[in-house]
Amino acid sequence: MITSTVSSRSPWRAFIATRTPPPKSRIQCSVQSPPESSSVSKICKISVSTPAGTTSVLEVETGEFLRNTLINNKTELYQGLWAKAMNCGGGGNCGTCVVEITEDESELMSPRTPTEEKKLKGKPASWRLACQTIVGDGVTGGACSVRIGPM
Questions:
Q1: How many domains does the chain have?
Q2: Could you give the CA distance from residue 81 to residue 78 in angstroms, rounded to a whole number?
Q3: Per the domain annotation, does 27 fall within a domain?
Q4: Can you give the residue ranges of the 2Fe-2S ferredoxin-type domain (predicted)?
């Protein structure tokens, strides 16, 4: 039969008993609220013309993709059943979201991406893919005109 004996005076108990807690530090913590943002997000006004002949004016914060802006405002971007069913969802692979930037005096739209250069080779420089076009630069606002379905 094996019995174990544990001494009430084990070395660990003696070590713990002799240790004193560290002195309380005088560090003061305070929670600060985030600084107030003095810059108000800039708004861009986009005049949108559809193949049906309707025109609407959309207001959007700068830095948004044109495709998302049009879809969120319930503007019919994709023309025809095939384009509605077979679009790539904004990846720049299909070319079904082609729009024409008819007026952009304040250079509100981002420059063409390499994807756009590939998909729109031989097309006018005013033709853009809505899924690749960013409205504004996140700092300045402005106005522009877009025509859906330039073909």
A1: 1
A2: 8
A3: no
A4: 44-151
